[in-house]
Protein backbone atom coordinates (compact mmCIF):
# COMPACT_ATOMS: atom_id res chain seq x y z
CA UNK A 1 0.00 0.00 0.00
CA UNK A 2 1.48 3.35 -1.05
CA UNK A 3 1.55 6.28 1.33
CA UNK A 4 -1.12 8.74 0.29
CA UNK A 5 -0.08 12.39 -0.07
CA UNK A 6 -2.41 14.88 1.61
CA UNK A 7 -2.89 18.63 1.40
CA UNK A 8 -2.44 19.42 5.10
CA UNK A 9 -5.22 21.58 6.57
CA UNK A 10 -4.32 21.26 10.28
CA UNK A 11 -1.63 19.70 12.45
CA UNK A 12 -2.21 18.76 16.10
CA UNK A 13 0.84 18.60 18.35
CA UNK A 14 0.93 16.80 21.70
CA UNK A 15 3.77 15.94 24.04
CA UNK A 16 3.90 13.02 26.46
CA UNK A 17 5.91 13.02 29.66
CA UNK A 18 6.76 9.72 31.35
CA UNK A 19 4.97 7.52 28.80
CA UNK A 20 1.84 5.62 29.82
CA UNK A 21 2.22 6.74 33.44
CA UNK A 22 2.54 10.50 33.19
CA UNK A 23 0.94 13.41 31.41
CA UNK A 24 -0.03 14.39 27.85
CA UNK A 25 -0.55 17.97 26.76
CA UNK A 26 -1.26 19.73 23.49
CA UNK A 27 0.87 22.58 22.22
CA UNK A 28 -2.08 24.99 22.41
CA UNK A 29 -2.84 24.09 26.05
CA UNK A 30 -6.39 22.89 25.34
CA UNK A 31 -5.52 19.31 26.30
CA UNK A 32 -3.65 18.52 29.49
CA UNK A 33 -4.39 15.13 30.98
CA UNK A 34 -2.85 12.65 33.38
CA UNK A 35 -2.35 9.24 31.80
CA UNK A 36 -2.08 5.96 33.67
CA UNK A 37 -2.28 2.35 32.60
CA UNK A 38 -5.71 0.82 33.28
CA UNK A 39 -6.08 -1.43 36.33
CA UNK A 40 -6.40 -4.42 33.96
CA UNK A 41 -2.79 -3.78 32.95
CA UNK A 42 -1.43 -3.23 36.45
CA UNK A 43 -1.85 0.53 36.56
CA UNK A 44 -3.70 2.74 38.97
CA UNK A 45 -6.39 3.66 36.45
CA UNK A 46 -6.41 7.12 38.06
CA UNK A 47 -6.08 9.00 34.77
CA UNK A 48 -7.11 8.37 31.22
CA UNK A 49 -5.06 6.13 28.95
CA UNK A 50 -3.93 6.28 25.32
CA UNK A 51 -6.60 3.79 24.24
CA UNK A 52 -9.37 6.01 25.67
CA UNK A 53 -7.89 9.01 23.88
CA UNK A 54 -7.71 7.06 20.62
CA UNK A 55 -11.31 5.85 21.06
CA UNK A 56 -12.46 9.43 21.69
CA UNK A 57 -10.69 10.73 18.60
CA UNK A 58 -11.83 7.87 16.38
CA UNK A 59 -15.48 8.08 17.45
CA UNK A 60 -15.59 11.86 16.96
CA UNK A 61 -13.86 11.65 13.59
CA UNK A 62 -16.09 8.79 12.41
CA UNK A 63 -19.20 10.76 13.46
CA UNK A 64 -17.92 13.64 11.35
CA UNK A 65 -17.37 11.35 8.37
CA UNK A 66 -20.86 9.94 8.88
CA UNK A 67 -22.19 13.49 8.62
CA UNK A 68 -20.33 14.02 5.34
CA UNK A 69 -21.74 10.89 3.70
CA UNK A 70 -25.22 11.44 5.19
CA UNK A 71 -25.43 14.94 3.71
CA UNK A 72 -24.43 13.58 0.30
CA UNK A 73 -27.11 10.86 0.62
CA UNK A 74 -29.66 13.32 2.04
CA UNK A 75 -30.08 11.00 5.03
CA UNK A 76 -31.25 12.22 8.44
CA UNK A 77 -28.66 11.25 11.05
CA UNK A 78 -29.90 13.59 13.77
CA UNK A 79 -29.67 11.90 17.15
CA UNK A 80 -27.01 9.49 15.91
CA UNK A 81 -24.06 8.35 18.01
CA UNK A 82 -20.81 6.58 17.20
CA UNK A 83 -19.00 4.48 19.79
CA UNK A 84 -15.43 3.28 19.30
CA UNK A 85 -14.22 0.42 21.49
CA UNK A 86 -10.41 0.23 21.34
CA UNK A 87 -8.84 -2.97 22.63
CA UNK A 88 -5.17 -3.39 23.48
CA UNK A 89 -3.47 -6.76 23.66
CA UNK A 90 -0.38 -8.78 22.86
CA UNK A 91 0.36 -9.74 19.28
CA UNK A 92 1.58 -13.12 18.08
CA UNK A 93 4.99 -11.54 17.48
CA UNK A 94 5.24 -10.57 21.16
CA UNK A 95 4.52 -6.85 20.87
CA UNK A 96 1.28 -5.02 21.49
CA UNK A 97 -1.52 -4.21 19.07
CA UNK A 98 -4.92 -2.61 18.84
CA UNK A 99 -8.34 -3.64 17.58
CA UNK A 100 -11.31 -1.31 17.12
CA UNK A 101 -15.05 -1.95 17.08
CA UNK A 102 -17.13 0.94 15.73
CA UNK A 103 -20.84 0.90 16.56
CA UNK A 104 -23.19 3.52 15.13
CA UNK A 105 -26.72 4.19 16.24
CA UNK A 106 -28.66 6.06 13.57
CA UNK A 107 -32.29 6.15 14.71
CA UNK A 108 -33.87 7.99 11.75
CA UNK A 109 -32.89 5.55 8.98
CA UNK A 110 -33.58 1.88 8.35
CA UNK A 111 -30.93 -0.76 9.12
CA UNK A 112 -29.84 -1.20 5.48
CA UNK A 113 -29.34 2.54 5.02
CA UNK A 114 -27.46 2.77 8.32
CA UNK A 115 -25.13 -0.04 7.25
CA UNK A 116 -24.50 1.64 3.90
CA UNK A 117 -23.76 4.96 5.61
CA UNK A 118 -21.25 3.51 8.06
CA UNK A 119 -19.47 1.61 5.29
CA UNK A 120 -19.17 4.85 3.28
CA UNK A 121 -18.07 6.77 6.39
CA UNK A 122 -15.36 4.15 6.90
CA UNK A 123 -13.97 5.07 3.47
CA UNK A 124 -14.00 8.81 4.29
CA UNK A 125 -12.85 8.89 7.94
CA UNK A 126 -9.16 9.84 8.37
CA UNK A 127 -8.78 7.43 11.33
CA UNK A 128 -10.20 4.60 9.23
CA UNK A 129 -7.87 5.49 6.39
CA UNK A 130 -4.90 5.57 8.79
CA UNK A 131 -5.71 2.17 10.31
CA UNK A 132 -6.88 0.35 7.16
CA UNK A 133 -4.73 -2.71 6.56
CA UNK A 134 -2.91 -2.21 9.87
CA UNK A 135 -5.41 -3.24 12.53
CA UNK A 136 -8.71 -5.04 12.74
CA UNK A 137 -11.65 -2.58 12.57
CA UNK A 138 -15.19 -3.95 12.82
CA UNK A 139 -18.27 -1.92 11.90
CA UNK A 140 -21.73 -2.47 13.37
CA UNK A 141 -25.11 -0.78 13.49
CA UNK A 142 -26.78 -0.66 16.89
UniProtKB/TrEMBL annotation:
Q: Name one Pfam family in it.
A: OsmC
Q: A GO term (biological process) for this protein?
A: response to oxidative stress
The record ties this protein, via SUPFAM superfamilies, to:
OsmC-like
Q: Which domain of life is it from?
A: Bacteria
Gene3D superfamilies under this entry? Answer: 2.20.25.10, 3.30.300.20
Q: What is stated as this protein's family in its record?
A: Belongs to the OsmC/Ohr family.
- What protein am I looking at? Organic hydroperoxide resistance protein
Name the source organism: Streptomyces beijiangensis
Amino acid sequence: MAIQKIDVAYTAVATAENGRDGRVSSSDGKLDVVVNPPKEMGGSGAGTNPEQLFAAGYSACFQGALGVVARAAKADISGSTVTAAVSLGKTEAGGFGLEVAITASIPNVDAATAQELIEKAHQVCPYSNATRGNIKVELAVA
